[in-house]
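pasting for ref
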Amino acid sequence: MTVPMGPDATTQDILCPYCLEIISYDEQRLFVRDDKQMFEELRVDRRISPLRLADTLRSAYQRCGSSEDGQAHYIPVPYLTNGAPLTVAMVGDSATGKTHLLTQMIAEIADGGLKRYGLQMQSVNPQDHQAFMSERVERLRSGEMLEHTRSAGEVAAFVDALLLSRHDGTARPVAFFDLAGEDLRRTDALTRFMVGVDALIFVVDPLRALPMPYLDPLRGDLGHTRGGDPAFQTVLDRLPRTSGQYLGVAAAVVINKSDLVRFEPPVDRWLAEPPPDARLAERFAEESRDAYAFLRHHTGQAWAAPFDSVLRCTLHFASATGSHDHEGRFPHGTRPLRVLEPLVSVLSMCGLVDDSAADGATVVGW
């Protein structure tokens, strides 16, 4: 897919995913990265061939106009020139496994995991995507545990962006953000960022949420204590209620690290389920009922708060690694289990999954 250069591509107003200011494609504000990964200005030469120009712009960035008054941030050009972007943010406190979960989601997309749902993938910026694959995906697949989400200061922690296209040629950029729980509670600019997010994936950690006594030794080793996730309520309190008493954002709640409770019903059933090919709404509704009942039976209301507050929300069982780490490594490698289902759910709610591959975007999420 090349960068479109028609008038529609150059005049569309986009919400900057970092600062929520309006930004549109502007050839006078373009940058590229040099060999030292520093940004340098790019002057577009219209005399070169369209194919070469499109290839140049695929790796270019535009500096957001609000950077002059704060932390500089740069938006990949294809993010501004391929239709309305979709922003997906991972929500959860530190050590919930959301970084591993997001890494495995993107890895499975890169392996063609969305093709069964009628979606093709291309990177928004090849250089950034390759860096993500080598620095995160390859490390995790080799058995190395990734570090926790680092603080990004006053802007959201951007992870990667992909262009997802349907068979009819419709394409949308999808940007992924991994938000540090402590930053959400400390930095008002980051909670303001949440107002512009299209989809949220809330990550539940069984070590914090579930009371099973056999989890106590692991809780002790890691210094975890049971209780709610303050990041959940921080986000829910900040989001606008656009659908009456409910929040209008698309959302999924993921009981991550489900391998730790793999023998508990109904976790045992769902971890063994293959990815759905059709009747997505029916499958997601069934899993959501089971996951909600599981949470409410074993935990307090706080862990199910997103489902009770968000109009369109599904619940899922998943495991980013398939096993727990030992001294910072996964000695037998990683085996992700059902990591794409939560993302497929929110993509369907947002209209990216073709109706022929599901029951319709308005049905998924109840």
